[in-house]
Amino acid sequence: MMDYTLDGENVEITDALRAWVGEKLDTLNAGLATDTLSAQVTLKAEGSEHHALGILWVDGVELSAVPAVGPDVHVAVNRLVDKLSAQLRRHTQRMYGRPK
To answer: Which domains are assigned to the chain?
Structure first.
């Protein structure tokens, strides 16, 4: 289970939303050799757009993604997790080599 904080600006953070975001972030932890993963996610609502901003810490290295935008919170979080997953994959390939 990953340690994470979830903040909202103009978005109500319900228990269901917090649990759903936690499940999405836990998918980043799958297949990693390290357990030292933590994240900070901020959700914003601006007009009809929702933004998800995220920072991921892996073994003391900070990975941040360009804010993901979507028509609702769920789409924005899915896009953010995809971006963080790509950055995490690149980071692990640099640190541990490409899989053979």
So the answer is: 3-96 (3.30.160.100)
